[in-house]
Amino acid sequence: MIARRCAFPGCPGETKDIFCLDCYFRLPSKDALFLHRWQFKMQRCDDPDTKQHMREQLHGYVQEAIRTLKKSVAPASQAAPDRARRQTTPPCVAAGANPFQVHP
């Protein structure tokens, strides 16, 4: 097989399969395994019409996998803001103490 670019847009990885290893392992395992099974099934098919139909279906499945990968990569605008990640209790509070208790 000839090395080619990963099917995920913008990925610089090269592969002999559909996705590079990084993108492959970011996919849910059931999706990744399904794509491989479908590809093997398509390669073993003898009927040219059926094989063409399976190739078109594989293309659709790959596009769905790409959409899944795009959802898994959250853009910076969707990432949690800094204030959402900050600890709300002061760092000087002892474990188990009430940080809002007023001392006399």
Task: Describe this structure as you would to a colleague.
The chain is mostly helical. It has helices spanning 21-26, 29-44, 48-72, 82-85, and strands at residues 4-5, 14-15. A two-stranded antiparallel sheet has the order 1-2. A hairpin with an 8-residue loop joins strand 1 (4-5) and strand 2. Helix 2 packs antiparallel against helix 3 (48-72). The termini are far apart. The relative contact order is 0.10.
Topology:
Blueprint: E1 4-5, E2 14-15, H1 21-26, H2 29-44, H3 48-72, H4 82-85
Antiparallel strand pairs: 1-2
Helix pairs in contact: 2-3
Brief synopsis:
With 104 residues, the chain is mainly alpha-helical.
Spell out the helices and strands N to C: EEHHHH
% residues in beta strands: under 5%
Kindly provide the radius of gyration, computed on alpha-carbon positions and rounded to a whole number of angstroms.
Answer: 24 Å
Look at the helices and sheets and give the structural class. Answer: mainly alpha
**Overall strand count:** 2
Quick tags:
single chain; mainly alpha; two-stranded antiparallel ribbon; 2 strands; elongated
